Each structure stands twice: as structure tokens, then as C-alpha cells.
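Subject: design request, 781 residues
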């Protein structure tokens, strides 16, 4: 009993080897073989990590994104990337990153934009959105998957390939002709059937097929699609493990039990309530895989508590029980043992991917041989769990007292937006279509080296401060030369938008090697929120005030909002998220008020992760949005009417939460829209958004430099949906991951496009004109 496996492992390498190899390959510093060798090494290391498990998962490695891998597997890459002299791997990267047209190809440059990037369910991982249109055709391309299978089989491993299921794949994509994605199911299923047959021919016994949308609300059409798909894919020999994660099955539980598959995996961390009913309803010939180790957070599993409910389940299921982490371990760092400098007490509370696999083995051994067989490990675990509960570092009475004193009026501005906008315009004197950036500028090697030397004590504080000031001065001068209207200091002192702020707050701890993948080569190191949050010193004040002394133009202070701090941290689980978010909001509020008192007139509070915190089921949204929006308002709304509050949101579908975004009442919101070609603005056809808005006009996640015409076209599209007078012009996101060689021409084109459109607006009288009529009157449509 208690067969062990996992759903996926981190794929970036213990020291981010994949990240560095990818970036070198894209720059042309290494050749194809060097990149492939790095990938091989990572897969070899991952193979060793799972040697003690009963099944070894293959197909979880990816050069960029597993959803994009699926599109490649199914032969579904956008036609605009069917370029001459371009092989599979280069096309793969072009879809993810876009491609810069050569001089000979300049006429078709606009067709080479990257595919859209968006959040993977409620995580901070991003996937490349599959594209469908009337010309979409599928054709199997299994070479990479089969190579990984053969690679594992060569080491005498019992393999379990992992695939994204056909229904979830369609759900994750977009139909650009406005049709129904399920219309493609009929032509997609034969490709999956062909793949399963090939896997069977290669000696595969079990295949893991991920259908994560089964934890979401599905209408009858999507539920029927599951029945149609799996009745057509059923095989008498190849066994399917239907895999779900991140939530409960709820109204899809009966459907899952009835599908003709050989086993079902559920996330027993988030769906423990479903276990009893699954045992009752699942046919006796099907296995039940339980995700008993949290694959989303880094706290140790309470082994005794888990065994208390798991042992009766094991007695009931016997050999039908499989054990695994709740989801792919992609979402946690690799190995806690690398953290030699971490606080010893806090380290004793944690488990990274390697430790989670060890916990899985302990649970399986306890089930098979009794708790006495792993008594020492269980006692050590119990001691750590108990020590964490009793630690005096968790709670701060002053923070609790302050929470009790929150007054609802603290979250409200003094005047409505229309009145504030007039006062802010008098103070700032901005032109129509004001230009700005989202905050960060390129993080050069010199900047990173100075920060590293300062942390190691190799650079004095005065020398470090001087180094950062010189970079800030460079950023201000560059922005003035370009002609931007609202400037930023460039954030050279910041390693990460969340970790930097966390380092200045009590209640956080940090890892050195706790990297997780956000997308492609982009990795983040989430801070560890273990206790009550408070702010004891200024975070951004000195850098922002210094930047403002260098220019007469307004400098925008850059802060990370409480909801994003919460959602992009590894968060404590011993109190409600709402309470933790309120603590963060009060800490950021103190920073906001101090900036205003120092004379800063524009303050941006990024809530990049607001939407990803949404519960997976819509019926649960209102409760989350109520406290999340209130937390933002609590941190932002203590300022006077003359202070302009901005916020920024990263790639996400925000159309269905537009009312909550409006309720945030930020004076200006900037959003990432260029990869969707402004499709995310469709909501404004029906919703009259009252405040300022800056839809991103070029994709900073791609190395491609947008032309002035491309940016102009996007601004026109935006102005067809939003009143001209409300529009701001800005990139999609911060520029830290790009080089100056990419940033300068892109910003120049953006500013020239804005200036050209601004000239037309200045010919008009001061009487406001709405939306598309504005541009029509200027001959721009």
C-alpha cells in the first residue's frame, strides 16, 4: 500500500542553472549544445531526487513553460512564427519572447509579437496562452517527450509521463476569432489518442493527465467535454491518472468518479473534505492518489496530524492508495540544506522540495510499517511543529492593538475623484497623454555587483549610497532627455519588488537560494512571512527624495502594495490572510504618509498580484475582494487630495473584477495589455471607468523593440475604448529585466508616438470629447 510519486519538480536547477544558460543562449554567448547540456544536467539531478519513489515523473522539465510545451507537442504554434530558417526550439522561444524582425522582414515586424502571458490559476507562475483561430490544426510532435521518457528508462526507472489534459488545454487558451474553444475538441482528441498509443508502445504503463480546471466552476458544456474526451481516450492497457490540484472538486466530484480513468489525484491539502466522498463513490478498481504534502508553501508538514486522518484511509484503500505532494513542486524552492546562513530557529520550521519528498517517504513508511518504524523522524517533526507554535517571535501585541484601532474612515479619500483630479492637475501641470514608466530601469551588472559587495561587507555604506545615487542620477537625466512627464528613480537599490520591502519589515525571514520560477528565465525569491508585520524605519524615503532634488518634474515614489506582498510571499498559515494583509497595509500606510510629508506628490502602490489571490470559484470572490480592496485603500487613502495615487497590475484577466478595481479608487491605474493587443480593454466598451488609466503600450517581457507605429496603433485602440483625457502612456511593466540598448529606443518610440497624438489633441478646444469620437475628429481612425 501507499505507492509514492510526485506531480512535478522544480526545473530551474539548484543554482538557477537553466536561467543563466537560457539568457546566455538568447544573447548568443553559448551554443545550442551548451544549453542542452545544462538541461540534461538538471534532469539528471531531478532523477536522483526521486529515486526512492515508486514512480518517476517525466515530461515535467521545460525550457520555458509547460503549457507552451503542450502547444509544441500538439503542433499548435501561431502561424506568424512559421518563419524560414527557424527550427523547433527557436520557434518555441519566439512564441514566448517575440522576435525582432530583420531589415528584410521589417514589413512583417508587427506579426512577430509574443503570445500572451498570464497567471497559472491562483499562483505566481505565468504560462504562455495557447492561441486558436479558424486556421488552427493540430499535429502530434512528441519527439521531446519521448526523448525524456527514453532518457529515464535508460536508467531502469519506472516512468510516469505527465501531460496537460485536452479539456484544460482548450480552457487555458484563447480563440482569437471569437468562437467557442470547445469546437476544437473533436480534432484535438485524435491527436491525444495517437500520443497515448505511442506512449504505450514505448513501454509506459501509467500516464498522469492534469486537468486542473476540474476544481473550478464548469458549465454543462465543459462537463460534457470531459465525458466526451475521456470516453474517447479510454484504453485497455495504458492507465490514466486524472490529476487535479489547487482546490476542491465539489460539484465536479461525481463527474470525476464516473470518468473512465484508472485513478484520480486530488489536492488533499485544499480538498481534504472530498476524501471521504471519493472513497465512497470511486469504483473499487480505481486508485486514489492523495496530495498530502503542501506543494505551494514551505512550512513543514505536521506528520502526526496527517497520519491521524491518513491511516484510516490507508486501511480502507489498501493497495489503491497513492501518496504525493498536493501539486507540482515547481512552486517551492529546491533544497533547504543550501540555506547555511538562515536563522536556525526559522529554518527548523521549513521544508523545500527535497525535504517535502523526504516527508512523503516518512508518511509512506509509517503507513506501510507503522509509526514506530520512523519514530525518530516523527518526534523531530513534532518538536519543530510545537516550537513554532510557541515561539515568541510570532506575535506582537503592539500590532494587534493597532489592528483593533482601524477606523473605516482611514480607508476613504477626502473627495471624489473628479475633485481630486482637478487639484492634482493644478499641482502637477501634466499634458494630455502624460508619459511615465512603471518603476524600475535596467539592473546592470554593475548595480548587482554593488549590492552584492555591500551585503558581503566589501563595500562601505557611504560608497554603496554614492553608487546608488549615481545610478539614480543617470536614470533621472535619461528620463529628462527622453522627455518623460512623470519620472521614477529607477530602483537600483532593489533586488525584488517584494523581497526589498520585506527586508525592511519585522515579521519576515529570507532565504539565499529559495528561488522559484515565475516564467521562462524569470525567477523570484519569495520572502517568508512568519510573524506579525510592522515597520520600524523608512523604506523608500531617502532614495525618492534624493531623486526629486535632481529634477523639477514630479518623481513618482514606488511601493509594493499589501495584497501583492501577501500573495508573493510564503505566508504563515496560523491566522486568516485578511488579518495578515491588514498588518501589511498599516506598514505601507506609514511609508505613504511619510513620503507625502516629504513633498512627494505622486505615489505608486503596485498591486500586481491582486487578481491571482482570487479564489478559484467565483462564488468565493466577493469575500476576498472585499478585504483585499479594503487593504489597498487602508494603505493608500490617508493622503490629501493633491497627492496622486497610482497602482499597477500585472498580466491578468481583470475584466470580471472591474468593479472591485474601480472601488480601489486609485487616481491612475496602469495595466499590462500589449500582449493581448488591447483585448483586455474590451470591458470598457460597457463599463465607464472614471479614473485615469495607462494601458501598457509595449511588452517589456520580450526583447523585441516596438516601432513608433506599433505603439501608436495600440494607443489608438485604447483611445477607442477610454476617454482620451483619461489615458496615460507607459510600458507594460518595470524595465529591470531589459538592457539599456533595448529600453532607450523603445521608450523613445513610445514618447514620440505620444507626442504625435498629443499634437492633434492640442488643436482642439478644452471641451472634452469621448472615446472613439476624439480620434475620429482628428482623422486618426
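Subject: RE: design request

Done. Sequence follows.
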Amino acid at each position: 500500500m501507499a505507492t509514492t510519486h510526485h506531480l512535478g519538480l522544480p526545473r530551474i536547477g539548484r543554482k538557477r542553472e537553466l536561467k543563466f544558460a537560457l539568457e546566455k543562449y538568447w544573447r548568443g554567448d553559448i551554443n545550442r549544445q551548451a544549453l542542452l547540456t545544462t538541461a540534461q544536467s538538471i534532469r539528471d539531478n531531478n532523477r536522483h531526487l526521486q529515486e526512492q519513489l515508486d514512480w518517476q515523473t517525466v515530461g515535467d522539465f521545460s525550457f520555458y513553460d509547460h503549457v507552451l510545451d503542450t502547444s509544441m507537442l500538439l503542433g499548435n504554434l501561431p502561424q506568424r512564427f512559421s518563419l524560414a530558417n527557424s527550427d523547433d526550439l527557436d520557434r518555441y522561444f519566439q512564441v514566448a519572447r517575440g522576435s525582432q524582425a530583420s531589415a528584410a522582414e521589417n514589413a512583417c515586424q508587427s506579426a512577430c509579437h509574443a503570445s500572451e502571458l498570464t497567471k497559472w490559476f491562483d499562483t505566481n507562475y505565468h504560462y504562455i496562452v495557447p492561441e486558436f483561430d479558424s486556421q488552427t490544426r493540430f499535429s502530434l510532435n512528441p519527439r521531446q517527450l519521448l526523448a525524456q521518457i527514453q532518457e529515464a528508462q535508460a536508467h531502469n526507472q519506472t516512468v510516469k509521463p505527465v501531460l496537460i489534459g485536452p479539456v484544460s488545454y482548450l480552457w487555458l487558451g484563447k480563440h482569437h476569432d471569437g468562437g467557442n474553444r470547445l469546437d476544437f475538441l473533436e480534432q484535438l482528441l485524435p491527436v491525444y489518442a495517437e500520443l497515448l498509443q505511442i506512449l504505450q508502445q514505448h513501454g509506459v504503463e501509467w500516464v498522469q493527465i492534469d486537468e486542473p480546471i476540474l476544481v473550478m466552476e464548469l458549465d454543462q458544456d465543459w462537463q460534457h467535454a470531459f465525458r466526451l474526451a475521456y470516453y474517447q481516450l479510454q484504453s485497455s492497457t495504458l492507465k490514466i491518472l486524472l490529476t487535479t490540484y489547487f482546490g476542491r472538486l465539489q460539484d465536479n466530484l461525481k463527474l470525476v468518479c464516473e470518468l473512465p480513468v484508472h485513478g484520480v489525484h486530488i489536492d488533499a491539502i485544499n480538498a481534504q473534505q472530498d476524501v471521504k466522498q471519493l472513497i465512497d463513490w470511486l469504483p473499487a478498481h480505481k486508485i486514489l492518489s492523495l496530495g498530502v504534502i503542501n506543494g505551494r508553501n514551505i512550512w513543514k508538514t505536521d506528520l502526526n496530524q496527517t497520519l491521524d486522518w491518513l491511516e484510516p484511509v490507508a486501511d480502507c484503500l489498501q493497495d489503491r492508495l497513492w501518496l504525493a505532494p498536493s501539486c507540482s513542486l515547481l512552486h517551492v524552492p529546491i533544497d533547504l540544506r543550501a540555506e547555511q546562513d538562515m536563522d536556525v530557529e526559522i529554518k527548523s520550521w521549513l521544508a523545500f522540495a527535497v525535504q517535502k519528498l523526504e516527508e512523503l517517504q516518512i508518511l509512506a513508511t509509517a503507513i506501510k510499517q507503522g509509526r514506530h518504524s520512523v519514530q525518530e523522524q516523527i518526534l523531530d517533526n513534532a518538536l519543530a511543529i510545537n516550537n513554532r507554535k510557541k515561539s515568541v517571535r510570532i506575535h506582537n501585541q503592539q500590532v494587534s492593538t493597532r489592528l483593533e484601532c482601524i477606523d473605516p474612515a482611514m480607508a476613504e479619500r477626502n473627495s471624489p475623484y473628479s475633485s481630486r483630479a482637478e487639484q492634482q492637475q493644478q499641482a502637477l501641470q501634466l499634458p494630455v497623454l502624460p508619459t511615465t514608466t512603471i518603476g524600475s530601469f535596467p539592473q546592470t551588472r554593475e548595480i548587482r555587483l554593488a549590492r552584492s559587495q555591500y551585503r558581503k561587507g566589501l563595500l562601505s555604506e557611504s560608497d554603496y549610497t554614492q553608487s546608488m545615487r549615481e545610478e539614480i542620477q543617470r536614470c533621472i537625466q535619461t528620463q529628462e532627455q527622453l522627455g518623460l512627464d512623470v519620472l521614477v528613480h529607477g530602483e537600483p537599490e532593489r533586488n525584488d519588488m517584494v523581497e526589498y520591502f520585506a527586508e525592511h519589515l519585522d515579521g519576515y525571514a529570507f532565504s539565499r537560494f529559495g528561488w522559484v520560477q515565475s516564467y521562462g528565465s524569470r525567477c523570484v525569491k519569495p520572502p517568508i512571512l512568519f510573524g506579525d508585520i510592522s515597520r520600524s524605519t523608512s523604506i523608500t524615503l531617502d532614495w525618492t527624495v534624493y531623486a526629486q532634488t535632481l529634477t523639477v518634474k514630479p518623481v513618482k515614489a514606488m511601493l509594493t502594495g499589501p495584497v501583492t506582498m501577501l500573495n508573493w510571499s510564503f505566508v504563515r498559515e496560523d491566522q486568516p490572510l485578511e488579518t495578515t494583509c491588514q498588518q501589511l497595509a498599516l506598514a505601507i500606510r506609514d511609508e505613504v504618509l511619510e513620503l507625502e510629508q516629504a513633498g512627494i506628490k505622486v505615489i505608486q502602490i503596485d498591486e500586481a498580484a491582486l487578481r491571482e489571490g482570487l479564489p478559484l470559484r467565483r462564488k468565493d470572490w466577493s469575500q476576498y475582494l472585499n478585504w483585499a480592496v479594503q487593504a489597498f485603500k487602508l494603505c493608500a487613502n490617508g493622503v490629501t487630495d493633491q497627492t496622486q495615487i497610482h497602482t499597477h497590475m500585472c498580466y491578468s484577466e481583470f475584466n470580471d473584477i472591474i468593479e472591485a478595481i474601480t472601488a480601489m479608487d486609485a487616481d491612475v491605474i496602469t495595466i499590462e495589455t500589449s500582449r493581448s493587443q488591447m483585448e483586455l480593454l474590451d470591458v470598457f466598451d460597457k463599463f465607464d471607468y472614471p479614473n485615469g488609466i495607462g494601458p501598457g503600450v509595449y511588452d517589456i517581457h520580450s526583447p523585441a523593440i516596438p516601432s513608433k507605429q506599433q505603439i501608436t496603433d495600440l494607443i489608438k485602440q485604447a483611445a477607442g475604448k477610454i476617454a482620451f483625457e483619461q489615458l496615460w502612456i507607459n510600458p507594460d511593466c518595470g524595465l529591470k529585466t531589459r538592457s539599456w540598448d533595448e529600453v532607450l529606443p523603445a521608450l523613445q518610440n513610445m514618447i514620440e508616438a505620444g507626442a504625435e497624438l498629443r499634437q492633434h489633441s492640442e488643436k482642439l478646444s478644452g471641451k472634452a470629447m469621448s472615446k472613439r469620437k476624439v480620434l475620429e475628429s482628428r482623422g486618426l481612425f
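The first helix runs from residue 17 to 27.
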